[in-house]
Specification:
- The protein folds into 3 domains: 29-226, Nucleotidyltransferase, domain 5 (2-Layer Sandwich), CATH 3.30.420.10; 236-328, DNA polymerase, domain 1, CATH 1.10.150.80; 342-424, DNA polymerase, domain 1 (Orthogonal Bundle), CATH 1.10.150.80.
- The protein is 44% helix and 9% strand.
- It has 19 helices and 10 strands.
- It has a 6-stranded mixed β-sheet with strand order 4-7-6-5-8-9, with helices on both faces.
- GO terms for molecular function: 3'-5' exonuclease activity; nucleic acid binding; nucleotide binding.
Length: 445
Amino acid sequence: MESSADPLGAVPVPDEPSIASVDEPTETRPAAIPLLTPREGVPVVIETADALRVASDALAAGTGPVAVDAERASGYRYGQRAYLIQLRREGSGSHLVDPIAVSDLSILSTALEGTEWVLHAASQDLPCLREVGLAPQSLFDTELAGRLLGYPRVGLSSLLEEVLGFSLAKEHSAADWSTRPLPESWLRYAALDVELLVELRDALEVELRQAEKWEWAQQEFNAARDAPPAAPRVDPWRRTSGMHKLRKPRQLAVIRGLWQQREEIARKRDISPGRILPDSAIVAAATTPSSLPDYLTTVPAFAGRGARRHLSEWQTAVSTALALPDDQLPAIALAAEGPPPPRAWPDKDPAAAARLSAARAGLGAAAERLSLPVENLISPDLVRRLTWAPPSSLEPPALRAFLNSGGARPWQIDLTLPVLEMAVRVTLADTAPESPVAVETAPGP
């Protein structure tokens, strides 16, 4: 098929198929086949070192990639540790490992050395897998592959249905996986998450190669595999939902004190902080705080059993915050790191706003032509940083170095550099670079 030129002048992109005439019959997609039970039945949960050794030997004797998944107890337990790990490999079958009962999983790493791991949304599971000593040497992320291929829905269930024609129920995705023993229906659900993951991987590789996006995918998979742990947030208490209503430093000190007290209790009890004290209660206590011993008993948000269990500790946190000297009160807002919100750019720096609009237009058009989300074409934050404060040199080598230092992959730089070079050269007297996508409606960073 003849290819049309890519809008960035970098990679040819196949022409879009023509729209069929209304008189032509439309193809009807067959109904998806429900995926109800694993091929070999629901595996027995591995809870002993001996059982883990048997499973590791089976995995080592298997062939091809290994499908891996992990279940956490988000919203129930403190942190994001894994409470069940699922693995499946051709010739080995599926295995369900309890990392709480068997904490030393190093034997699995040895068994899978040199094997490609297949995960869906790897960035979600890799941190908890690393906590138990499991990390891939080679990775295929089916969610990332779906994004690069332009699938509108990239959840595991959606991709299985779209690519392989199987439907997968997700009714236990938000369950408390720290429950012991785990119900049979949950174990079936967990095993099905890896049942067709390798088959999905193989089908997506074919599509990636046909779309000439295989090299892009390899770079994305390697970046996901090598991504460092997220840096600790500065003042994480500032993410308390609803605190934007309060603007006095003393109120913020109460929020900080209650938030930190809640974290300490949650960590000790291994319970999700929100189940101990909701954010709404923290904000309610900080609205009109008082050091009176029975103050919190008058706050309706503290009437619940969970909140009252630690009432004296909450009151101590409030009283301590109210007694702080002024020089120890938190600032109303953190000093800004990086560019301000784009909505403020037209007032703060109109030239930067023009550069950002030009970049959004060009990148939006390119992403549409390449059939992938613009945020996967280039990091929106990186684009904002570049257009807000471009490097002193606007020549391609300097721009390439800027993008590279910001974590952009080589394929992303090659595709976006021409558009971004034009964008950073835009001034208020200029017209934005021509683009088939209007600046004000273009998707973008």
